[in-house]
Amino acid sequence: xxxxxxxxxxxxxTEEPTNVYYTRPLxxxxxxxxxxxxxxxPNFVTVVGMLVGVASAAFLAxxxxxxxxxxxxxxxxxSILDMADGQLARMTGTGSDFGRQLDGASDYIxxxxxxxxxxxxxxxxxxxxxxxxxxxxxxxxxxxxxxxHSLSYDYVKTKFSSIAKTGIDSxxxxxxxxxxxxxxxxxxxxRLKRVAVALYSRYSELQHTLLRLPKYEKVEYGVxxxxxxxxxxxxxxxxxxxxxxxxxxxxxSIGALFGDLLAAVVVLAIxxxxxxxxxxxxTRRRTRSG
Length: 290
Hints:
By secondary structure, this protein is an all-alpha fold. The protein has one domain: Four Helix Bundle (Hemerythrin (Met), subunit A) (Up-down Bundle), CATH 1.20.120.1760. The protein is about 80% helix and about 0% strand. It is built from 13 helices and no strands. The protein has helices at about 1-15, 15-35, 40-60, 65-90, 95-120, 130-165, 170-180, 190-210, 225-230, 235-240, 245-255, 260-270, 270-285. Helix 3 packs antiparallel against helix 4 (about 65-90) and helix 6 (about 130-165) crosses helix 12 (about 260-270). The longest helix is centred in the middle third of the chain and has 35 residues, at about 130-165.
């Protein structure tokens, strides 16, 4: 009973509002269908979602209607599938470290595809509202920001969710175990899996370096501490919840639906990055040790 309350509270505190009220309800429908379909695994859904995301980038690259509308809708389908793979893994008990790594890699493949697709789609604007160098810089700032914001949001969400739900900081525990094993050469016959694990390790270290929270560097938390963490950091968690990938991709989709990719890129490049800086300054001050 206590754990159920903490699970619900952690979900509401850490999840993107766009996921709570939009993406997840739609993903639930797909998950029920996938769970009853033989041969459909979470990794399969991840790969399909990645291909759909790459297809949306191709539609956006055309740069005019009705392809921008189609690209926006296909991009949202990709976001829903990205949510569905994790839900399917939890429902069927088939989650794995490799699946999590594959999911992360697919997100970056989709992100790179969208960056290139948006650049091509905005090419007709060069010489008009903005020159191509300015468009390139704005797009680089927008998509670089999406990657940085998503990396930071993922760290904060995973850290505080695990503390609240299990009483164990899974990221801190994983980091300490990885440190102990750092002198041991990890071997696998599967080269792809070895590369994925190495990349995930570097990704995790980057997250910890960027978002080291001295106030929360222990592994185990009692029940009262778990409630206190969620209550004390409710503002911080809400601020981070608007920096997840679904929110950013929704902004891009709205711009495409209105036929103005450049406006969406400007919003992602300037206000969203300024918001990130403000949140990070607040985080540093808020989570100092002592």
